[in-house]
Amino acid sequence: MRERPSSPSSTARQTTLSVDIVVLTPRAKRLAVLVAKAPDTHSRERWILPWDAPRGEESLADAAARVARAALGTAPAALEQIAAFGDNRRHPGDAELSVGFFALMPNGDYLPSGSESTWFDAEELPAVFPRQRAIIDAAFDAVRARLDQSPLAFRLLPPTFTLSELQAVYEILLGRRLHKASFRRALQAAYLVEPTDEWRSEGRGRPAQLFRYAPRKRRDRRRGVRFDLVSG
Amino acid sequence: MRERPSSPSSTARQTTLSVDIVVLTPRAKRLAVLVAKAPDTHSRERWILPWDAPRGEESLADAAARVARAALGTAPAALEQIAAFGDNRRHPGDAELSVGFFALMPNGDYLPSGSESTWFDAEELPAVFPRQRAIIDAAFDAVRARLDQSPLAFRLLPPTFTLSELQAVYEILLGRRLHKASFRRALQAAYLVEPTDEWRSEGRGRPAQLFRYAPRKRRDRRRGVRFDLVSG
DNA sequence: TCAATAGTGTCTGTTAGACATTATGGA
DNA sequence: TCCATAATGTCTAACAGACACTATTGA
Question: By the 8 A CB rule, do A102 and A139 touch?
Answer without folding.
Answer: yes
